[in-house]
Amino acid sequence: EVQLQAFGGGLVQPGDSLKLSCEVSGFILDHYAFGWFRQAPGKEREGVACVNENGGRFYYSQGAKDRFTVSRDNGKSTVWLQMKAVKPEDTALYYCAVRYSTCNFRAAQYDTWGQGTLVTVSS
Q1: CA 45/CA 4 separation, integer angstroms
Q2: d(C-alpha 61, C-alpha 98), whole Å
Q3: Among 19, 43, 24, which Cα is nearest to 34's?
Q4: CA angle 106, 47, 114 (to 5 degrees)
Q5: Residue from 105, 86, 114, 117 nearest 35 by CA
Q6: Contact 68, 83 (CB under 8 A)
Q7: What angle do CA 19, 92, 9 make, to 5 degrees?
Q8: What is the pLDDT of residues 16-71, one digit of tens each?
Q9: How many whole angstroms separate alpha carbon 100 and alpha carbon 89?
Q10: Which of 87, 98, 74 is nearest to 40 (CA)?
Q11: pLDDT tens figures, 38-53
């Protein structure tokens, strides 16, 4: 059974850093792209970062660019999202998701999702 488990969220202050992890089980990560999405209360789910199937290309939303870093280690079956200089508008439930082949930010094209981990940025 394919499973993704995201964790690492919490309450942080503006300007802090936070690293989210997504542990994957049930399949081999090669040939799959991993995306990080987030959903704030009352808003649609949006893509924030994606690492392509071979780990050589990275994609970021405008809001995540220059502050977030996505990475993966296929050997550890883990994908990370390093968040720096977080802002109150980063508050959301963060999800990791997987799709075969290349990155995009179209949530409907992702096959399997983790359960989400809540990030709250507040002073």
Answers
A1: 17
A2: 17
A3: 24
A4: 90
A5: 105
A6: yes
A7: 30
A8: 999 999 999 988 888 899 999 999 999 999 999 999 988 889 999 999 999 999 99
A9: 30
A10: 87
A11: 999 999 999 999 999 8
